[in-house]
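$ ./design --mode recover --in tokens.txt
reading tokens...
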């Protein structure tokens, strides 16, 4: 373990991703999602601010599925390339696992950033976003923070149950995420700030809901200032964000520590043909 450092393990993980389909998936999906939605909303007869809010809600809602697919492909590739020797056969499994989570999460952040930028382009050309770039950046960061637990959860699923179960749970997670804000494009059609209006309740403890909620609240905290009673509404949005952020941090940290403890004793019994 003497020669192992965080930097070297992360670099090794990046090198193994060179030429991988995962990089192309992140870039293509990010750009395609942003451009297609941006072009559609730029031509749609809705309020630009609510359109931007709706886009980030949808983008966040699909993070459970995206994380599941990416992790499932990565773990399956590890199995095919020598029974996961690059993860289970190294001196420090915990360091290897931490590096894998970090690299995959950063790829997710890259895809989210590309989608946000690609969405902004046609919207700005058509007349404006209805929200400042600072709100777009906050929403993108919020989705990334809310997604970290999903990567941890998906890795645990992929290691224990395999590719198909992981993706199936990702599909379920996206459905839960969409329903948590009242349905797809709910705020756009009802002309409300649905991220702030929906009561978190038990959903704030469900990791699938965090990316879409944090993405939406990142935009809505700026939109609130354009509405009557804007300062009070913005304060309420801030409280809603905190109500979700606390469970997010607690569960992410707990799951991360549990996964690091578990990987030391993990024995892979899955078949490559899963």
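writing sequence...
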């Amino acid at each position: 373990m003497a020669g192992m450092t965080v930097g070297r393990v992360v670099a090794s993980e990046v090198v193994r991703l060179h030429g991988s389909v995962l990089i192309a998936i992140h870039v293509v999906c990010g750009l395609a999602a942003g451009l297609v939605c941006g072009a559609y909303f730029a031509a749609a007869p809705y309020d630009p601010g609510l359109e931007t809010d709706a886009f980030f809600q949808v983008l966040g809602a699909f993070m459970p599925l995206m994380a599941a697919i990416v992790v499932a492909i990565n773990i399956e590739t590890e199995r095919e390339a020598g029974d996961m020797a690059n993860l289970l056969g190294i001196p420090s499994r915990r360091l290897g696992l931490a590096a894998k989570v970090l690299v995959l999460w950063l790829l997710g952040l890259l895809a989210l950033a590309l989608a946000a930028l690609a969405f902004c382009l046609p919207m700005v050309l058509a007349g404006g976003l209805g929200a400042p770039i600072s709100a777009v950046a906050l929403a993108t960061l919020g989705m990334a923070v809310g997604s970290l637990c999903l990567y941890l959860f998906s890795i645990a699923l992929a290691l224990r149950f395999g590719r198909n179960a992981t993706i199936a749970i990702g599909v379920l997670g996206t459905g839960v995420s969409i329903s948590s804000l009242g349905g797809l494009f709910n705020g756009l059609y009802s002309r409300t700030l649905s991220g702030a209006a929906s009561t978190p309740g038990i959903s704030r403890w469900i990791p699938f809901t965090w990316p879409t909620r944090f993405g939406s609240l990142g935009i809505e905290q700026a939109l609130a200032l354009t509405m009557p009673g804007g300062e009070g509404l913005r304060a309420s949005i801030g409280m809603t964000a905190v109500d979700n952020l606390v469970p997010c941090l607690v569960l992410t940290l707990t799951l991360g520590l549990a996964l690091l403890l578990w990987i030391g004793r993990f024995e892979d019994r899955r078949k490559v043909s899963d």
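exit 0
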